[in-house]
């Protein structure tokens, strides 16, 4: 199945696809194959037109490995497979480099970056604010001004990892090697003084004095660097610098630590750790700058997403932690926080799709990824609700839709009641409406949901597996929304098997062996897999057995099949 994807993924509202064909598999498959011919120009809406897709396969995303050009060439809507193309969130150009117009993690409204088949495609991360039509869009950066005004948006010459003369292992000013141990000891002395001054000035509570909740002090960050100086030096001394924070000389292969590209790591609050100083917490503007750096110089680097994912996962969690600690209320700060969280949520969604493949050789914890996505979406919903009449969030309907589909297997089957409290314009949004349709079609009544003794069937469950997969392949479902729905593909397939059994196996067990209608080919189409091998693997995982008919075709043998074994 040929495929072409032109969608804004992590930057602006997620794109959608057109001209899809039948769904084909379980979670994690990346579409391949390229369709030629011109495509309709993208609309001002966040959906990107003109993609042919098929359903994700249970074999997992194929685009999560290889260099960036490979990832971009093999990823697309989670409903397709077979062949290779420049489809997907990470897109390679003719030189094997990533095309900025199809990157996956940025945010904002559309801009005309990148061009394919003579038609400009919207950048995946949205347009750069403060520019007019036809104007070259460039962001401000702590790494110097931009000299090149043509070509791709990302100027890699300004990436500190590539500035070997400036960051070759010594001081940027003197060129002499730094004694980090001496510097570390001095910073520890200065840190004690800073803590005392912060307590006296009321910036933080005295850790040695009891304090009531009503008198609690909300920390305010003052750090304007991507990583506080104390942490930078401490991690250098303790040899805890990530490879993504180093410069590697291309000739000698020697790596050097680059302080300018170090990012604050996530650290849990635990016994033995002192409370963070104001100088340890980054300001909202610095957090946005850090997020931009991750998207422009780490996500779009030439390494695989699988190898950089752990670094990205930790540093984005650190950004969320700094936002949470400060409890931002000012409109400007809240807008920045929402931008960061929206991009982080898109990153987790894409990672769930691309890195769930068995072919991914790097460690990937699907459960932890879902947990962090859930926490990010909840933080976004709180910001949306708390600032309902103060700030307009242009992407709110997009993330409300993600939340709905992500709640398909929620322990509280009361989503329909909860969404009634949302503003009317949100409920009427096409994104939210299609998400509600997916939610209802994917639900079932045989698997009870709830907590403790309150478990009960889902009130709006329809169990319409065919409708669910038709929606997934339809133009109304954007790429990222399909990536989230992909999490529940196997659950819907289990519902499919149960429905088939109830419809075809009512006659006595002694006669069930005569039912040979459900061949492997028929099941592959109904269960939305890419090929027969995936169908056979899935059915065997469910405890089902196959037999061979007179024509040599394998079919599902219902005679030895206990219904309760599916999904058990």
Give a brief outline of the structure.
The chain has about 575 residues and is mainly alpha-helical. About 35% of the residues lie in helices and about 5% in strands.
Describe this structure in words.
- It comes from Ajellomyces capsulatus (Darling's disease fungus).
- The chain is mainly alpha-helical and 568 residues long.
- Among the domains are: 158-262, no CATH class; 505-565, no CATH class.
- Helices cover 36% and strands 3% of the residues.
- The strands form three sheets. The chain has a two-stranded antiparallel sheet with strand order 1-2.
- The longest helix is centred in the middle third of the chain and has 24 residues, at 331-354.
- The two termini are 34 Å apart.
Instruction: Name the overall outline.
Output: globular
Radius of gyration: 26 Å
Low-confidence stretches: 1-8, 14-76, 80-105, 107-153, 163-176
Overall structural class, as computed from helix and strand content, comes to: mainly alpha
Strand content bin: under 5%
Number of E strands: 6
Helix content, binned percent: 25-40%
Largest sheet: 2 strands, antiparallel
Protein name: MCM3-associated protein
Biased composition (Polar residues): 103-114, 128-152
GO biological process, one term: mRNA export from nucleus
Organism: Ajellomyces capsulatus
Main attributes of the structure:
single chain, 568 residues, mainly alpha, two-stranded antiparallel ribbon, two-stranded antiparallel sheet, 6 strands, globular, SAC3/GANP/THP3_conserved, SAC3/GANP/THP3, MCM3-associated protein
């Amino acid at each position: 199945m040929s495929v072409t994807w032109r969608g804004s993924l992590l930057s602006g509202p997620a794109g959608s696809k057109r001209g899809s064909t039948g769904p084909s598999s379980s979670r994690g498959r990346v579409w391949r194959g390229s369709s030629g011919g011109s495509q309709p120009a993208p609309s001002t809406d966040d959906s990107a037109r003109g993609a042919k897709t098929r359903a994700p396969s249970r074999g997992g995303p194929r685009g999560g490995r290889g260099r960036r050009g490979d990832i971009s060439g093999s990823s697309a809507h989670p409903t397709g497979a077979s062949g290779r193309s420049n489809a997907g969130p990470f897109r390679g150009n003719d030189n094997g480099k990533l095309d900025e117009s199809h990157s996956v993690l940025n945010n904002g409204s559309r801009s005309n970056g990148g061009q394919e088949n003579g038609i400009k495609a919207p950048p995946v991360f949205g347009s750069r604010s403060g520019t007019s039509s036809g104007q070259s869009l460039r962001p401000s950066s702590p790494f110097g001004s931009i000299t090149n005004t043509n070509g791709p948006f990302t100027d890699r010459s300004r990436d500190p990892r590539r500035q070997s003369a400036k960051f070759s292992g010594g001081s940027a000013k003197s060129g002499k090697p730094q004694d980090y141990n001496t510097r570390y000891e001095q910073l520890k002395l200065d840190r004690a003084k800073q803590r005392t001054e912060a307590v006296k000035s009321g910036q933080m509570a005295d850790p040695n004095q009891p304090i009531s909740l009503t008198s609690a002090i909300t920390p305010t960050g003052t750090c304007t660097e991507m990583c506080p100086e104390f942490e930078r030096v401490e991690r250098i001394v303790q040899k805890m610098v990530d490879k993504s924070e180093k410069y590697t000389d291309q000739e000698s292969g020697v790596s050097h630590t680059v302080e300018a590209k170090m990012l604050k790591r996530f650290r849990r609050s635990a016994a033995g750790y002192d409370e963070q100083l104001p100088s340890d917490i980054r300001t909202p503007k610095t957090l946005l700058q850090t997020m931009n750096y991750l998207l422009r110089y780490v996500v779009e680097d030439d390494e695989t997403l699988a190898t950089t994912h752990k670094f990205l996962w930790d540093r984005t969690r650190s950004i969320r932690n700094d936002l949470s600690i400060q409890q931002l209320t000012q409109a400007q700060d809240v807008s920045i926080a929402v931008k960061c969280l929206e991009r982080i949520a898109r990153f987790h969604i894409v990672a769930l799709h691309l890195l769930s493949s068995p072919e991914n050789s790097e460690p990937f914890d699907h459960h932890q990824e879902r947990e962090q996505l859930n926490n990010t979406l909840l933080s976004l919903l709180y910001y949306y609700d708390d600032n309902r009449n103060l700030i307009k969030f242009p992407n709110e309907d997009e993330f409300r839709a993600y939340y709905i589909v992500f709640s398909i297997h929620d322990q509280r089957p009361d989503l329909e009641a909860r969404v009634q409290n949302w503003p009317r314009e949100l409920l009427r949004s096409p994104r939210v409406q299609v998400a509600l349709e997916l939610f209802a079609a994917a639900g079932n009544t045989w698997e009870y949901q709830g907590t403790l003794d309150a478990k009960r069937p889902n009130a709006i469950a329809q169990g319409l597996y065919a409708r669910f997969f038709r929606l997934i392949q339809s133009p109304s479902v954007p790429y990222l929304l399909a990536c989230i729905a992909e999490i529940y593909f196997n659950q819907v397939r289990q519902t499919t098997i149960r429905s088939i059994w109830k419809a075809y196996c009512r006659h006595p067990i002694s006669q069930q062996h005569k039912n040979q209608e459900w061949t492997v080919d028929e099941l592959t189409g109904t269960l939305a897999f890419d090929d027969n091998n995936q169908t056979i693997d899935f059915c065997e995982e469910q405890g089902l057995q196959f037999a061979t008919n007179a024509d040599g075709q394998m079919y599902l043998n219902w005679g030895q099949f206990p219904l309760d074994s599916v999904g058990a």
